[in-house]
C-alpha cells in the first residue's frame, strides 16, 4: 500500500503553544503541516510545531511545520521468532487531557489495532506543553491468538528521516571501546548498533538517546526509564535517508491473553542538532527526580593534576610543583594513580608514604599551605588479583551467567558488584577515610568500568534479577556522594569513566564530569556541548588535561564551551616520563594567559547557548556562552577566511572584542550580525551591550 491510498486515521499535533489530536473524520488526508483544525472534534487548543499521524495499519509519519520529516513507517513492531509483525489494523482510539502531572499539562492519545498473527498493539502517546517536540510512548502487545507466541524482540520509534541535500549527522549516547566521537557525519554505509549494554567487559552504558539530523530537521529516540536499561538504539544510513529506533531483544514467551509492555520510550522531532533533544530528555528526567546536582563552588576552580609524573611519581616531585601550579593560577592539586599498593585494598605505598596515614595527612596539609585544594584519585569497584580484597572477599565479584569474572583491562583487575551491600559499605568507608581522616577536599573517581556494569549472576548476592547490578550502579554513586558530603559538606566528587559516553542515571550523584580522556580537541568541544545539555546550569564540566588536546595546548576548546581548565604539566628539571609536557617559560606564559582569561570571565558558570548553532552543519564550528547580557562566541576551524554570523543578539548595539588579543572588532546588532574573520584554529569574540 502506498502513501497515496492509505487512510490517515489519527493525527497528533504537538507544540509549545498547545496540543491537539485530530480524528480521521476531521483529518481526512489533510497535510501534516497544516494549521490545527478548529472543529469541535479537535482535542486541545493552540498552535502546533510537530505532528504525528497514524495510517490505518498503525504506521506513523512525523512532520515539523512546513517540513516533511518522514514517510509512513512501521514505527512500533514486534518480532516473533525473528519475523517482523508490523501491520496492525486500526481498531480504535481514546484521547484525554492531562492536568497536574509532574511534567505539567499535556495530552494523552491511545490507539490500538490487531495484526493477522493474533497480536494486539496498543500505543499510548503523551505530550506535554512545556516539552515542545517530545512524544513519550508506551507500547503494549497482547496475545489474542489463542496459542503461545515466542517474542524475540521489539522496536519503537522506528523512523527514517527522509533524504534532502546536505547529508546527515548523528549523535550516539552509547559507549564504544574504541572511544569514537559521540557526534559524527553519516557516511553512505554508516551503521552503529548503539547498545546500552556492555561493548566489552569494562566499556558500556551511556545516555539512552540517539539522534539523526539533516540541515533543516532531526529525530531523536531513547528511553525515559528511571533506571539504566539494556536496550539498543540502532542508527543506519539508508538509500532514502537515515533511520533510527529503540530496540529490545530480551526473548519472552506470551501465553494466551498475556501482555508484553515495552520500556517507556520517547521521540523528538526538532530542527538542529542533538542539543535541544537532550535538554528535553534532561527536563523530563528532572521531573521524576533525576537531575544533575548543583555543583559546589570549588567545582569551577581550575585544576592541576600530578598525572604528568604518572605512577612512579615521588612526593617531592608533586610538592615541588605546587608553587608553580599556584603561580599559574590553578587552585586544585590532584594526586593521581600510584599512591596506593593496589586497586582494591587502597593501602598507602610505603615507599612514598612510609609513616602511613600520618604522611598522607601531612601531604594534604602541604597542598593547603601552597594555597591549593587537595583532590585524590581512586578507582572503586575493582580488585587486583593480588589484593587482600580479592583473596578475602570473592563474594563481592560480579559474575556473568557462566560464572566468569569481568575484567577491568587498564588495571588488570576484576569488577565488583555495585548492587551488593558489602561492596557498597566497603567503598563508603574508604570515602570517609579519604576525606574525613586524610583531609582531601575532593575525589577524582576514575575508570571505564565505572560507567556501567553487566548483569550479575553471583549467587552470593541474592539478586532477584541479574539486571539489579546494572540498575543499581547509580545507587552506588548515590551512597558514595552522600558519604563524601557527610565527611565534609560540599566535598567534590569528579567521575571520569575513561572514554565512555557518560551514563545519565549516574549524573545526579556527581559534581564534575571531565572530557574523560578526549582523543582530540573536537571531542573536548562535542562532549562539552553534550554534557552542558544534560547537566544544565549550575553544573561543572572540565575539559580534562589540556595536554590531551590538539597540539597539547588547546585551552581555547575548553574555554569556549565553558569548561573548567585542567592541566598535568611537570616542572622543568623535576623529571618525568614525558618531556613534551614540561612547563617551559614559553608554555608557562601561555598557561598563565589562559587561566587569567578563564578567571576573568568564568564562562564555566555561564549559560551555554547550544541551541544557536548546529555542531555538524554550521561552519565554522561555533559555541556561545552567555553571562548576563554579554555573549561569548568561540569559532573553531583549521583555517577560516570569511564571514561568521553572531546569533542570539538582542535589541541594541554590541561592542565586539577579541578577549585573547584585546583587539577591537567593531560593533554589531541583531540586524547587522556578521563579521569578517580570518583565523587559524580558533577565534574568540565577546559581544558586550553598549549602554
Give descriptors for this structure:
single chain; 691 residues; alpha+beta; ten-stranded antiparallel β-sheet; 10 helices; 18% helix
Give structural notes.
This protein has 691 residues and is an alpha+beta fold. It contains ten helices and 41 strands. Helix 2 runs parallel beside helix 8 and helix 6 (421-437) packs parallel to helix 7 (468-487). The protein is globular and about 75 Å long. It starts with 7 loop residues before the first strand and ends with a strand. Mean pLDDT is 93; it is low at 24-47.
- Estimated structural class: alpha+beta
Biggest sheet details? 10 strands, antiparallel
Q: Show unreliable segments.
A: 24-47
Strand content: 25-35%
Overall, the morphology is globular
> How much is the radius of gyration in Å?
27 Å
Report the average pLDDT across residues: 93
What percentage of residues falls in helices of 4 or more residues? Answer: 10-25%
| Individual helix count | 10
Distance between the termini: 63 Å
**SS elements, strand count:** 41
Quick summary of this structure?
The protein has 691 residues and is of the alpha+beta class. Helices cover 18% and strands 33% of the residues.
Secondary-structure map with pairings?
Blueprint: E1 8-14, E2 20-23, H1 24-27, E3 50-55, E4 60-64, E5 67-68, E6 77-80, E7 83-85, E8 89-98, E9 106-114, E10 119-128, E11 134-143, E12 149-162, E13 169-174, E14 183-185, E15 191-192, E16 198-200, E17 203-204, E18 206-214, E19 217-223, E20 235-237, E21 241-248, E22 252-254, E23 259-261, E24 265-270, H2 275-287, E25 303-305, H3 315-328, E26 332-335, H4 357-369, E27 373-378, E28 382-383, H5 388-392, E29 407-408, E30 413-415, H6 421-437, E31 442-446, H7 468-487, E32 492-496, E33 512-514, H8 521-535, E34 540-542, H9 555-560, E35 566-567, H10 585-601, E36 607-608, E37 621-627, E38 630-645, E39 654-657, E40 664-668, E41 674-689
Parallel strand pairs: 25-26, 25-35, 26-27, 27-31, 31-32, 33-34
Antiparallel strand pairs: 1-2, 1-3, 3-4, 4-5, 6-7, 6-12, 8-9, 9-10, 10-11, 11-23, 11-24, 12-21, 12-22, 13-14, 13-18, 15-20, 16-17, 18-19, 19-24, 20-21, 28-30, 29-30, 36-37, 37-38, 38-41, 39-40, 39-41
Helix pairs in contact: 2-8, 6-7
